[in-house]
Amino acid sequence: MLAFCLLFFTTRVEASDVSVKITDFGLFRMDNVTDISDVASPGGLRHTGVPVLVKVTDRAPLAIGSTFGINFVISSSSGRSTVTLKRVVRFPSPGIKNLTTGLIQQHYESPLDYSTGNTHHFGYSLDSAVELVPGVWTIELWDGNEKIVEKSFIVGN
After folding, report:
1. How far apart are the first and last CA of the chain?
2. What structural domains and CATH numbers belong to the chain?
């Protein structure tokens, strides 16, 4: 008697154990700002500081200094105290010219470690003329290959 063994290899995709609740969104001002060199950012910098919500809205003026974003709290059903999330900002077409590389970017992304249970901020500040692109800008947070939250803003008229 012949026995045939068939092996099936499957890729098991596990759902993220991370959830994000947006607690605030809109226009912000940043206090105690520190600039950090970041060649992936179109302007060559990213900022850290203390975000202060100025106005709840999903619209932002098309002006240098305009800062929009989200405040959020992260939970982990498996009890992780720290998670690494990929932060993404998607730009409207035609994209933004990176002042460091000279290339046109359709989005900006970077990973960052976050503690669970605390309020965090992710936003974008229009710092240079090349960033003054009207249209829909979308902020996303990803856990691995799973998008766990997004919020869109209309920048400009």
Report:
1. 76
2. 18-155 (2.60.40.2390)
Residue 10 Cα to chain centre, angstroms = 31
- Residue entry with tokens 């302007």: 43
CA distance 58 to 36: 26
The answer for residues whose C-beta is within 8 angstroms of residue 12's C-beta and 6 or more apart is none
Q: pTM for the whole thing?
A: 0.82
Of all helices (H) and strands (E), which one includes residue 129? Answer: none
Measured CA to CA, the distance from residue 121 to residue 52 in angstroms comes to: 10
Q: Which of 140, 99, 123, 139 is nearest to 48 (CA)?
A: 123
As averages over each run of 10 residues, the pLDDT of the chain (157 residues) reads: 37 66 94 70 69 95 95 91 94 90 90 92 90 96 94 93
CB 136 within 8 A of CB 106: no
